[in-house]
Amino acid sequence: MALSAKDQIIPQYSFQEMFPTGNGMFELVEAKGQFNKHKAMFLVPHRRDYYQLGLVDEGDGRHWVDSTLYQLDPDSFYFSTPQQVHIKEQAEPFMGVNICFTREFIELENNRLFRNLPIITNPQNGHELKLQTADRDFIRHIIGLMLEEKHQHQSWKNAALQAYLHSLLIYLSRLYEQQFIATEQNTDRQLLHRFTTLIAEHYLQLHEVAAYAQLLHISTGHLTAIVKAQSGKTPIRHIHERLMVEAKRLLFHTEHSVKEIAFELGFEDDAYFNRFFKRLENSTPTEYRKSILEIYR
Predict the structure, then answer these.
(1) Domain 12-181: which topology?
(2) Hey, which residues does 54 pair with through a beta bridge?
(3) What's a Pfam family in this record (predicted)?
């Protein structure tokens, strides 16, 4: 089990640990009902340092992402990003296909189109897309072409796989927008998207709106006006909600003290963190932890 830091609260499993063979950045895995050899690792709260896309053909296992419970459904498509916390309730075999790739893969010049797609940036912290029959048929077709290409040894094999993956990610991003955003991507909307992406990258270090305005090279007032108009929420509310997502993850999935969690989230004063949490959740971190564990465990 690879830890990203000596004192890491939730373990993070690396791509290289999960897929020790291959090119170290991209893997297409077909599951045919066998148990995953890493099943024991997935039965405890953990993060993965890579992106994962999953199409389920058969399977009915239950798993948690952050504090939301999901039931595997062949009429859904699953996706995860590196910051999310996972735990399976039990080791259940399933049939389907997983597509996994690293941040380094996204940063390759040939994959620059990927970087700002909603299915990659995941501004709404989603995990599941509901599929209509036509959606599932198209996705299954693209993945089938990828599997066929993987098992052949033709010229330009990697280029073909990338082209299929581009098509798949664009299709999934359109579904993401329909189901999570459902709004026109005008200039102001693009600014909101860039802002929420920056929050996902920097929320542990940057808690002030002015810091994000500086990264976006605009004034704090302009950022506030655009974000409020496009989302109905102020920029500071977006920042606070992202901090609350992580706070709830840590309260639910770890036994670390409130003081330790406050420090992990960038709060120097745990008393301030307690006031911050209560203001947004109407309960203290300790009260939230007690109530959520009583409900789900």
Answers:
(1) Jelly Rolls (2.60.120)
(2) 78, 98
(3) AraC_binding
